[in-house]
Amino acid sequence: MDKLLITGPCALSGRIRVSQSKNAYLPLLAAVLLSDRPVHFHNLPELNDIRTMLKLLRNLGVQVLEEGEVTTLVAAQLTSWEATYDLVKTMRASILVLGPLLARFRKGTVSLPGGCAIGTRPIDLHLQNLELLGTKIDLRSGHVYAETEGLQGNHLKLNFPSVGATENLLMAAAGASGKTIIENAALEPEIDDLAHFLQALGVEIEGIGTACLTIYGRDLTRPGNFKEVHYQAISDRIEAATYVMAALATKSHLVVENCNPTHLTCVIDALRQMNAQLEVRAQEIEVLPSALRGISLETAPYPGFPTDLQAQLTALALTAEGISVIQESIFENRFMHVAELRRLGANIELKGNIAIIHGPGTLNAAPVMCTDLRASAALVIAALAANGTTEIQRIYHLDRGYEHLAQKLAAVGAHIERVPGPAI
Length: 424
Prior knowledge:
The protein has helices at 22-31, 48-60, 85-88, 98-105, 124-132, 163-173, 189-201, 237-249, 265-273, 310-317, 337-343, 373-385, 396-399, 405-411, and strands at 3-8, 13-17, 39-42, 63-67, 70-74, 82-83, 107-111, 136-140, 143-147, 155-157, 179-183, 204-206, 212-216, 229-231, 253-257, 277-280, 284-288, 296-298, 322-327, 347-351, 354-359, 367-369, 388-393, 415-419.
């Protein structure tokens, strides 16, 4: 298994380009199942999660043609309606094929999902609301067996603004007869992107960008109901913020390009509270060397501070003057990076779902191990600021969400090398 060797402290400079969003493209790939017409996606990031979703779609019978920067998918005829355990166990987003399978083919089987071990992430909201749309659900032997005689529009009220549930229900509603209303829908930019893609296919949707979405369904069992489309997902806001934090942690001057700062308003505000010197433009963020100070904040659903950036902020806070207090309110087991950061010399106290970070301490290189995707990014940030060569193992987690991370960082001055490591 490959590992990273990072020798710090590093000074980054130049421009680093953000890839298109994995978290946007995964539901878009699932949505291909709604249509029998070709869909052409531009600039799919080269990530393990994307490869897994493409393999899942191929297993269902979707034709996939990769030609340069364009990936064409055609779901004219499926040969299977089951997302098998061998694929689903590594990627939670596999559950997203259930909504479109029901909408168009009226049946679907999905193994219960896996992904990062960061806490309980039940799919109850998906299943309860799919039942309200007219689905019969049977849970047995670690699988979800679902079928319908035809989805019927309904008024759905989510008790939590779940991103995955909102996405699954949006796609299911596209093939439900009549009108479906989703209240307390998630507000993340990736939801808007999925809604805009569905509109491009031909779905009528109202309320995009709000917590109340109205979808007017169509009969997707009849061929030719949608249009052939070309589409490119939004850029990856989590990757963009990770590079911004890496530059701040190393007191570097770096421009993060191909990003949408409006998707990072809360993050930018938080960093400016830490005295980060940022120049924000239409499609890029310029980071200037900054003397950071501590911060207190709590993660929250969008537009709040993302849980997917909590680990990176924890690493950044180690370089700030004073005490930072970070409360994790989304997942109950998302401080696994703390033990590894302590190996580098971090002074962090954990009290339940609250991390108290004492900075600025001296970070020194040590062997560390990735525990999940975003924890991996936190270790990279800390290693860039630490003295000596840090060995980061189990970087397959990073490969799920950061395209060519080592190459990108090396191009802007990081002393980083990817080398073969021991098998796990």
